[in-house]
Amino acid sequence: MHRxxxxxxxxxxxxxxxxxxxxxxxxxxxxxxxDPPRITGERExxxxxxxxxxxxxxxxxxxxxxxxxxxxxxxxxxxxLLGLVRHMTEVERWWxxxxxxxxxxxxxxxxxxxxxxxxxxxxxxxxxxIEAFTxxxxxxxxxxxxxxxxxxxxxxxxxxERTRDIRWLYLHMIEEYARHNGHADLLRECIDGSTGD
Length: 197
Hints:
The protein is mostly helical. It has helices at residues 9-15, 42-61, 66-69, 81-100, 116-119, 126-144, 166-192, and strands at residues 17-20, 23-26, 152-153, 164-165. It is built from seven helices and four strands. The strands form two sheets. Strands 1-2 form a two-stranded antiparallel sheet. Strands 3-4 form a two-stranded antiparallel ribbon. The relative contact order is 0.17.
């Protein structure tokens, strides 16, 4: 498994501090990203591509201040980079810990699924939100570490027909990140002109 994420709040808070007009301004730190292997087994390939997309979202945030991460830079869309990080924290929890590990957990930002992960950013602590994301990734990996790709995941809620296997979760998460990383590309370019894969 690729482990390319900072693991402590202090690292995120301290590594991102930069001097600015005699004050300290937090900026999202640089994030290493590992290219997936070109020849490997199915499970390793799925995990590597998912980790690559996870790191890509963090790369789109690196070097930006909390205020920049909250910008909704592509009107009329309400999307922001921090909103995407918060949303993907909840998506990771939903599919890997709630579904795959069959654990009853609340959503940290949007308990009623009303879009608050994207919307309620005014008082959001960007460093803490990014750290919560990286911690959720570790917990998501642990939730499926002992499972096989063919293992069936129980359905939740009122939809018993929505059972799926672990393979489906990996593929769905890669698709979800690919879509949102496209959004992140546009947001980042609008904020400071940065482009790249």
